Amino acid sequence: MGRKKGVAEFEESPPDDFDPSNPYKDPVVMLEMREHIVREKWIDIEKAKILRERLRWCYRIEGVNHLQKCRHLVQQYLDSTRGIGWGKDQRPPCLHDPKVEATAESE
């Protein structure tokens, strides 16, 4: 037995019936949405890796002129790395900050 040759088949779009206000309503759709989000994150990460390799190549080839010659690649790489990766899932900053405990003044 060997591996099947061919292209893996999966839905490239997010599930249509996912309800963000109640994600646990349909567990199957919730898992499909999670898989979609993970797949999109991996695609963004791999794009950033490709741009990083191009940038390394440009730095090596251009030498002392890399500041002028590789500027467009630096900008593309910085734009591609903003907001990607695990733990940077576009949540508002209030969810990333430490919780502030309210002090009850019952005096």
Automatic annotation (TrEMBL):
InterPro entries given in the database record: NADH_UbQ_OxRdtase_su10 (IPR019377), NDUFB10 (IPR039993)
Membrane topology (UniProt): Peripheral membrane protein
UniProt feature, compositional bias: Basic and acidic residues: 88-107
GO CC annotation: mitochondrial inner membrane; respiratory chain complex I
Skewed-composition ranges (Acidic residues): 9-19
Entries under Pfam families matching the protein: NDUFB10
Keyword flag Mitochondrion: yes
Origin superkingdom: Eukaryota
Subcellular compartments: Mitochondrion inner membrane
Key words of the record: Electron transport, Membrane, Mitochondrion, Mitochondrion inner membrane, Respiratory chain, Transport
Chain segments carrying region Disordered: 1-23, 86-107
Family: Belongs to the complex I NDUFB10 subunit family.
Protein name: NADH dehydrogenase [ubiquinone] 1 beta subcomplex subunit 10-B
